[in-house]
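so my prof wants the structure for this chain in the tokens format not the other one, which i didnt know existed until like an hour ago. anyway here's the sequence
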Amino acid sequence: MLIRQLTLAVLVLSYFGPVHAHPKHQHKNTSSELTNNQSSLNNHYNDTVRNQIVTVLLEKAYARGDGDLLEQAENLMKTSKNPSDVENKLLATRLAQANHDFSTAEKTLKEILKSQPNQYDAILQLANIYRLQGQFDQSLSLCNQLNDSEVKWYQAGCILQVEAMTKNYSDLKPKADELLKATSRLSKNDKQWFGNILLEVATRFNDQQLATQAIPLLATDNLPNTLAKANWYIAQQQYQTALKILEPYRYHDGALYRIILAKQKLGDHSSNKDLSELSLRVQTLLKEQDHIHLREQAQYLWVSKQYQEGLKIAAKNWDMQRENEDFEVYAELALASQDRISAEKLLRWSTITGYQNPTYLPRLIQMVAVL
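here's what i got, hopefully its the right format
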């Protein structure tokens, strides 16, 4: 069972990497570890060693927000001597997800599960893809297939993430508390995974107690953990605390976006300079046709108060990915634009899927009633 060997990179890619900390959204000259050895790696190592190196590169790429390391991982995977091997396929699907190519990842994962129905790593990844796309029933069904005693905690985390999208918090709270108690027995990497899940739940449902206990699980100083904590502090209007932890990562677009948001809330006019910097970054990425996800474009347009243009991008993004953060940026732009059609679209989807959001759903309902 490959899930026994899950590392932080796998957990990041499967759960919060594409959402919070895509490594290609960095804008500085970062270290290019292993570059000098890459030609020899391409020629002299077997796939087992190659896969281990790719996994390390992925870990570091997401921990730092380093696109160079991600590209090295992609290049190494292209030289695999046995691309049809299951472990090679799983690494390839993680890279596909990192580039938001969910259809390719889904196709490959289904192929793996057709021949190996109990391949838990593939189940976990596919469950995540369905959750990202708002297919909650399919995602939950896959979570429930993680029924081996050795992976019961992964099953619990998988289920909690899905149910956090569709359940009332009174139903979720006991499960979250149970998982929190279990984290003392888990590895460092697993603690970070569960810590991110629990802090996201605490942020969505404004659970101070849960957040206080989840934040220490994110003791490692890296980009994904910092963004998760910043989301909490911003939601709690602790803008100075958010700015303090975000500043070392301002080279990353996701961190800079949050810096701008916090400064705007504080009325700090230096946010205009930061916004100009982010604007140049976005324009450069678009001009060079480099990787930039639609959600990030919509977020930039929102903080720059280009609401109508942002609404168009958010709507396009919504057709591709329906994570909680996608809902929220679309809702913010619909509210700012007073766009009834978009608000009704989001409310219909919420009714059909059972999606819960105690912050935005009441505001959308109120806007529709008034317009």
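also thought this was worth mentioning. The mean pLDDT is 85.
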